[in-house]
Specification:
The complex is a heterodimer. Chain A is α+β, with helices and mostly antiparallel strands. Chain A is about 30% helix and about 30% strand. Chain A is built from eleven helices and 18 strands. Helices cover about 30% and strands about 15% of the residues of chain B. In chain B, strands 11-21-20-18-17-14-13-12 form an eight-stranded parallel sheet. A three-stranded mixed sheet of chain B has the order 6-22-23, covered by helices on one side. The chains are: A alpha+beta, B alpha/beta.
């Protein structure tokens, strides 16, 4: 059987997110309890978490989470990193063995910063320098896979049910102001750790529920800008589109949402002159990044979170707020289990991005 | 010469002689109050059959056959005889003949949603077919206030991804041009003048007209260029890549002469190359000259025939400043072309779209141009497949003529079109009422648009841009590995 990346595999899913606008850092326990309510939306073939604000002592360094199939792939990767980065700290990521999670790769963590002279020679900014290096590891080092590479954040994912993945990675021992989670229901896969979600590039992480019908149009468009879609998953292509639009084109997240889940032409026609021009421009300029078919996504990034549905709202997505904390989930029950009395619960409309940001930075 | 077709009538005939009146090829006459059939003149245009009030006329292939030979087919022997007696080049019209080269559209199958994602019902949900055609800048720009600046160059907007192909006034009648212009306006799409100029009475359709600049420069002047939404430089045509055109003096009469700016009765000869384009840098100059004369307000299209090295040609055009590339495939139609050229030169449009789209993406310049595909688009399914392979839109010529009555008898070059389309004979051109013709064209394109929406909805796609270049929507059957590789698709079941 072919593994992820050699064949395109569709999947249904559960997603949820918690964001503390006041920068308060909470442990991974809440997100674990939330996602586990949606146990039957997953089938044990993939689960994972993204957390922000978890490495305050290393917040100026890129935190690399890397899977290795073998010792030799680790040695090769470390040689590769050594030539390009100053490695401040490295260690195995602490795990708790559980019989429900098996076939684990070697899971390592590095805190790095680009070597100054290498960075200067490359004529790139440090984000681009780092992202290119990470894409190269994924493409060219057999048996190595970079799971996440942003600052003061990390992705923890595995083959298994999300609650078991949480125990395996001991996420109750991390504290972050922002958490997202994913439980996967692929229709056909042997289960590959790197194929689990969240998917990430730099500090951008995406959890996604759906199956986009525009996949190949989007993939071929984003690959024109130097990205390489190796996993053939929706989440991967959505992440790259967001990275391209925000980091390379300088669009805001709301504008990204207006590209990916663009309003219908009939909706645009009813807007006032200026808005009509703006929205038409975005649709025409970035028509190849319109994403169709069902999706609900939660996007994590440094200092914020965005939830977005496809424009017909073909997947469930619920939002809730209690004080300074905002919750998103595929099902309301997953919010109620950790916050029984929210101030407000609502269902964002199709194509309507809900964006939350830190109001003041935590400790 | 021996007849190719036989005309027969049966006992239902009421001797109204309508068939004789309708036949413009002299195949049916009346002598002493009786119908007389000249079988050798029949071209099987079906005009008599369609107009017979009692259904009493039949056209069939002549039963007589040459002795079968697996190498020299009947047509080969017939054509050798014709050339032996005349010493001339064989002429033909419409698209390449059947059976020689695969029609790849027929070997492509579309996808549909089941279970893992929902199909979308176009009767219940919006289903968008509007197409943007033109250049996209590399980066967004913002004003000092941070607002997005609209930096999109002039472009075309189509309500549906189907346009009408270039067919010149002279090759076809003014009534056909009128019908096309009216239909394009009502549909929110574009029609194309071809190389014969634009009749003054059609200037009001400026918003839906594309004017062509071909190697003969017939009818090209400043007003003409400014009476259009876009300008097309015609380099080549799928039916006759590499050669020019020849409209006989017989068709250069009255308004055709005036519009083409060619004296009455004089042959209008389009040279094979543009005499100011001998290389790609010359093309860039012509593109910029045309933009200069129209104040940079009109996008420029470059039309080329699909030939072996179409991918690098398209890449060169994309870098020339042109806003769109129109690619016409091997099976594309024509009013007249040497038969050997029509049947033996060029490559099928499906392969051309696939390699051009892929090449422009590899060179990261796909956003610089729109791609228009043509050359035997027969149905909405062909449209969907062309777009999934990578075209932005298609244009239709033969299909549009069929909507107006054409039965593809391939006799356009005779100038005797019984349906009143490819002729300038006033007795024949009046057979087409432009308003009725426009209504039929609108019906056709609207019907296709409905079908396109159904197919898109089935795939769970609700906007045409999500279909463009979406090659996973396609699978092939009866194709070899190389063909699949060039088309960039998987085999059915993969």
């Amino acid at each position: 059987m072919k593994k992820e990346g050699e064949v395109r595999i569709s999947s249904g899913c559960a997603i949820c997110g918690i964001f503390c606008k006041d920068g308060r850092r909470i442990t991974g326990d809440a997100i674990k309890r939330s996602i586990s309510v949606m146990h039957n939306r997953s089938n044990g073939l993939g689960g994972g978490f993204a957390a922000y604000g978890i490495y305050p002592q290393y917040k100026d360094f890129f935190a690399l989470h890397i899977f290795y199939d073998s010792l030799s792939s680790r040695e090769e990767t470390e040689r590769f990193l050594d030539r390009r980065f100053d490695i401040i700290n490295l260690s195995k990521i602490p795990i708790r063995q559980t019989p429900r999670i098996s076939d684990a790769p070697l899971v390592w963590r590095y805190f790095v910063t680009p070597l100054p002279h290498m960075l200067a020679d490359s004529q790139l900014d440090e984000d681009e320098y780092t992202s290119r290096a990470m894409i190269r590891i994924n493409n060219s080092i057999q048996g190595a896979y970079v799971v996440s590479c942003g600052k003061d954040m990390g992705v923890f994912k595995a083959v298994g049910y999300p609650e078991d993945v949480a125990d395996f990675y001991r996420i109750d021992e991390y504290e972050g102001y922002s958490w997202t989670a994913h439980g996967r229901y692929p229709t056909n896969t042997p289960g590959w750790w790197a194929g689990s979600h969240p998917f990430s590039l730099l500090d951008l992480t995406v959890v996604h529920n759906g199956e986009i019908s525009s996949y190949d149009a989007n993939r071929r468009a984003v690959e024109m800008y130097g990205y390489s879609c190796n996993l053939l998953t929706d989440t991967e292509v959505i992440t790259y589109i967001l990275d391209y639009l925000t980091r390379k084109q300088g669009l805001g997240l709301k504008e990204c949402a207006e590209v990916m889940a663009a309003p219908f032409w009939s909706t645009i026609a009813a807007k006032d002159e200026e808005e009509r021009r703006r929205l038409s421009y975005l649709r025409k300029m970035f028509s190849a990044f319109l994403v169709t078919g069902p999706f609900s996504i939660i996007v994590g990034y440094s200092g914020g979170m965005m939830a977005l549905n496809d424009r017909l709202k073909l997947r469930s997505l619920v939002a809730a707020q209690k004080g300074d904390t905002v919750y998103f989930s595929s099902e309301e029950a997953a919010i109620r289990v950790i916050e029984p009395a929210p101030d407000r619960v609502w269902k964002p409309r199709g194509g309507e991005a809900v964006i939350v940001s830190l109001e003041r930075r935590g400790i | 010469m021996r007849a190719r077709y036989r005309i027969r009538k049966d006992e239902e005939c009421i001797s109204c002689f309508k068939c004789a009146k309708e036949c413009s090829f002299g195949a049916i006459g009346v002598v002493d109050g009786r119908l007389v059939f000249h079988h050798d003149k029949c071209v099987d245009c079906q005009r008599c059959v369609s107009s017979c009030p009692t259904g009493a006329v039949f056209i069939s292939e002549d039963m007589n056959r040459f002795r079968a030979n697996s190498v020299f087919k009947e047509d080969d022997i017939r054509e050798i005889g014709l050339q032996a007696s005349t010493g001339g080049v064989l002429l033909s019209s419409m698209g390449a003949r059947d059976g020689q080269v695969p029609v790849y559209f027929d070997k492509l199958l579309l996808n549909a949603s089941q279970v893992t994602n929902p199909s979308i019902d176009p009767l219940r949900e919006p289903m968008e077919t509007a197409v943007f055609l033109g250049q996209r800048p590399e980066r967004v720009e913002r004003g000092v206030d941070g607002r997005l600046v609209d930096n999109l160059p002039p472009h075309l907007e189509l309500s549906t991804p189907v346009m009408f192909s270039a067919m010149s006034y002279g090759a076809i009648s003014l009534n056909v041009h009128k019908a096309l212009a009216l239909a394009a306006q009502e549909l929110g799409t574009y029609w194309n003048t071809g190389e014969g100029g634009l009749h003054e009475s059609l200037y009001p359709y400026v918003r839906n007209t594309i004017v062509q600049v071909a190697s003969g420069r017939f009818g090209v002047h400043e007003t003409y260029l400014n009476s259009a939404a876009a300008i097309e430089i015609k380099i080549g045509q799928g039916a006759k890549p590499g050669i020019g055109g020849h409209l006989t003096g017989k068709k250069i009469v009255g308004d055709v002469s005036r519009t083409r700016m060619v004296p009455e009765g004089m042959d209008a000869i389009s040279p094979a190359p543009h005499h100011d384009i001998y290389s790609i840098e010359d093309l860039a100059q012509l593109v910029m000259s045309l933009k200069e004369v129209t104040g940079y307000r009109k996008p420029v299209i470059v039309k080329v025939a699909a030939v072996h090295n179409i991918a690098p040609i398209a890449s060169g055009i994309a870098r020339s400043g042109a806003d769109m590339i129109s690619i016409d495939g091997y099976r594309g139609g024509t009013g007249a072309a040497p038969k050997r050229i029509r049947d033996n030169v060029g490559i099928p449009i499906e392969l051309a779209i696939a390699v051009v789209d892929q090449r422009l993406r590899e060179e990261r310049i796909r956003d610089r141009v729109g791609i228009i595909a043509s050359g035997s688009i027969r149905s909405s399914a062909d449209v969907v497949k062309a777009i999934a392979l990578g075209a932005d839109a298609v244009s239709i010529g033969t299909a549009a003529l069929c909507a107006l009555g054409c039965h593809i008898c391939a006799s356009c070059h005779t100038g005797r079109c019984a349906w009143g389309l490819a002729t300038q004979d006033p007795e024949l051109t009046k057979r087409l009422d432009p308003d009725e013709g426009a209504r039929r064209l609108v019906n056709l394109v609207n019907a296709w648009t409905k079908e396109i929406k159904e197919m898109m909805g089935g795939m769970g796609i609700n906007s045409i841009e999500a279909l463009r270049g979406n090659r996973r929507a396609l699978r092939g059957v009866d194709l070899n590995v190389k063909e699949l590789e060039i088309l960039g698709i998987g085999y059915a079941g993969e």
